[in-house]
Amino acid sequence: MNSESLLAIKQQLVDLEKRMLDEVKKRSMELENIHPIQMLAARNLLHYIVLRNEDIRGLQYLLHINGLSSLASSESHIQSQLQAILQRLGQHYADNQLSKCTFDYNQQQIVEKSHAMFGEKKDTDIPFIMVTFDVSFAGNYSLIKNLLLNGMNVARINCAHDDEATWSRMIHHLKRACRHTGLNCKIYMDLAGPKIRTKLLKKGKDKGKVKVNEGDIIWLADHDKGFKEHEVVISPNEVGLIKKIKKGDRVYIDDGIIKGIIEKAGKNKASLRIIRISSAKQQIKAGKGINFPDSEIAISSLTDFDKSCLPFICQHADMVGYSFVRVPTDVLGLQTILKNISSKQPHIILKIETLEAVNNLPALLLCGMRQNIFGIMIARGDLAVEIGFERMGEIQEEILWLCESAHVPVVWATQVLESLNKLGMATRSEITDATHAAMAECVMINKGEHTIEVMESLLDILKRTGGHRLKKSYTFRPLRIAQNYINHQNDLPIGSKIIANTL
């Protein structure tokens, strides 16, 4: 080993640790309301964000060639790992200076939090399995029992569909099946969130669909006044949204199948040029999702309908999924409402499905840490449309890293073995995708005709992959999420002013 090289490494690591500790002091206001159980995790998250705020690939190279840890795979205990390297290089620490957030501590925390949230199971080397219930499940006890016997750990009920009577029948059959099989199954209920959906106002209104072509101009508006019968006019189903749209903003319809660009924008209407249709059926159907990734749309994530569902959810569910969460005040609002409804509060799972949620993820995690347990769902459907499909692989990895640093259980969701579920045969890329799901604590399966086959295949894949989950090595270029958090104006964390004003 080159002594000069080792001295340079030691100094860089000493400086890095100092920046980590300084960041925790700077964010002291945001840590005041962290639950005591979450305090070490919150500090570790801040340490990791400092690390990922800069490019340390040169340092990693020096560490590696000198036979030292390169800091990869240490998201959950970054200061402890850094201190271990410094001790090898002769740095002395008093006992009270050594980080208590060690690798063993994290492993214990993530297991305990996952079991508290998703339940107990014998095979702890693979993720929990969450299955989405369809309306047909309300009258099919034998199917629910079969799902339990084949490995279902969590039942997902989407409040965007059906009603309380239907949900009650689903829950009744599930609890009956649990009693008969002796197996446990947690209940997760998704809030619907704002329904930004296509509503045809002129042409195609009666049929519920309208033919369009690439290059066409269509209109976005709140009402049909002032338009001709042959024009395609679509309401996004949320009053006040149109005036937030700007010229040049991208608009995606039907999970990104149709892409358009806003050419003119006014208070009550906006013209949209269709530039791509990725489907043989060149049409827009009523009730399809619309995404506005470039527009600053301040719509409440918690709707009146969501609020009306919360008493039922508090009574019956173990977890509640918060759809389209964007900023810390969203989380604070739901936490407050749940406290006022019941002393028995379901664990909150924050669904990351917008670009804004990705950018605000550190602040959302710290806000979630006001409670002893919460989770994150990587809701890859809307998220892929919002950030761009080509970035999905990168972003889902970044979310996993940040959640690992915060000791937060993660649900891997959307289109897991989708072709197998709907058509009876998985694509090769879906098999590869399913292996990545082993990095999460829970995997969600959507509803389909072949759910049992999906569960069998998924469990087989996860068991084969489970032994390799910790065998990964990454180099640390800066993460944009970390840079946004560190460099936010006035040196305050994203949303901290808002949080402070609500205390």
Mean pLDDT metric: 88
CATH architecture of the largest domain: Alpha-Beta Barrel
What structural category characterises the helix and strand content? alpha/beta
Number of helical stretches of at least 4 residues: 19
Radius of gyration: 24 Å
How would you explain this protein's 3D organization?
This protein is an alpha/beta fold and 503 residues long. It has three domains: 3-108 and 475-502, no CATH class; 109-194 and 299-466, Phosphoenolpyruvate-binding domains (TIM Barrel); 199-291, M1 Pyruvate Kinase, Domain 3 (Beta Barrel), CATH 2.40.33. Helices cover 42% and strands 15% of the residues. It contains 19 helices and 17 strands. It has helices at residues 3-26, 28-31, 39-51, 57-65, 78-88, 103-118, 141-149, 164-181, 304-316, 328-341, 355-359, 361-368, 380-387, 392-405, 418-423, 428-436, 451-466, 480-486, 496-502, and strands spanning 128-132, 154-158, 186-190, 199-200, 209-211, 217-221, 233-235, 250-253, 258-265, 269-277, 283-285, 290-291, 319-322, 347-352, 375-379, 410-413, 442-445. The strands form three sheets. An eight-stranded parallel barrel has the order 1-2-3-13-14-15-16-17, surrounded by seven helices. Helix 1 (3-26) packs antiparallel against helix 5 (78-88) and helix 7 (141-149) packs across helix 8. The protein is globular, with a radius of gyration of 24 Å.
